[in-house]
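== Protein entry: sequence and backbone fold ==
=== Local backbone shapes as whole numbers ===
==== Amino acids and backbone structure tokens ====
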Amino acid sequence: MTHAPGTATAWEALGGDPALLSHISYHARVGALPARLPVLELARACVGACALAGAEWAATRAGRPVPEVQVDDGALATAFVSERHLRVDGRAATTFAPLSRFWRAQDGWLRTHANYPHHRARLCAALGVGADATVEEVAELLAGRSAAEVEETVYAAGGLAVALRTPGQWAAHPQGAAVAERPLVERDRLDDAAPPARSAARPRVLDLTRVIAGPVATRTLALLGADVLRVDPPQLPEAPDAHADTGFGKRSARLDLTTGADRRTFEELLDGADVVITGYRPGALDRFGLSPEALVARRPGLVVASLSAWGAYGPWAGRRGFDSLVQVATGVAAVEGVPEQPGALPAQALDHGTGYLLAAGVLRALTDQAREGGSRVLRCALARTAHWLVHEVRPEPRAARGEPVDPAPWLAETDSALGRLRYARSPVAFTGGPADWARPPGRWGTDAPVWA
């Protein structure tokens, strides 16, 4: 392949120079990410744009020409399901809990998410069942209730449930209409502040993200040389397998921002940061003064990137969400399913794709900032990536479907504090760029909350 139109769209959304697109070469492979929707094309676009942004940033720092970028379908197909390839001392990762699944309702289908204990507890409470409810008990209950009614009831209780919609139904929904009006990557320059002096060397990235999309973005920035420190509240531990999958290259600390000592430590970290990336639902961190605008006001010259499920606008702006639920709401699950049952993409491609887009946005912001200064704010949403996939990404001609791509060339193993890890290598590749992360993940929350 010599071109991928989706990459040009993503690169334009990131404000990149179109002349640099000629630096990307593609290696197509039969059997990569098969789906009705153009998932492979989306993956090529997100990773291609991210790798090009990384190459541009590396060239800017070194004062050299932008190197060549390589995008391999095998690497994409492996990395976009990195959580499935993960092994910890030979044990496969747990990806979905029993109550995270599709359910047949009285008038259609819905999907719930209950991977975290607090989400399971809220779901069970909203449904009026015990915390130890079985799949069979919940299935019997939901079979007699409306999908839309369950969606509203569960969300009102702080849980997660989404009724199945077709693309047309989502387009007619107020949130779907709001999402469609937004750019793929929202980019704003808030002032003319000079960039922090440290950002010219090794950017310090304060990582306030969870689960997949945000951690994929920060994992990618760590690969490319950033000093990434992830900070989590002690009362909300990350799922161990998710941490093992996305913790490469980073350090991990715990701080309770409701306590004075931890808050002072956090402020010291913020004072030394070049980039802050947040992945909590919009407004969730505002009480700590961590909205993008508040962060920039306190630390001019920052790059602030935020990620959400539904976008920071519209009637669902404050709702929690995950890739699997966004697929259900936006019509992806309806397209990928059959009349008898909804389906799913071959990967959590909204998470992974948006993660690479967010990393690309940060890299492009750092490049532009090095040239022009200015505080930068970026926003991405899984629902906007889904809109791009369903309505805008153009399918490329493909050969007949073949066997799935053998992931072996893009898998590696390493010892770590968590045990012996098998993991997917990053698909972000350019000439002279890093081949792998500098360090494996450590134990969650055990690093000192200081910059390296």
Observations:
- The chain has 17 helices and 17 strands.
- The first strand starts at residue 24 and ends at 27.
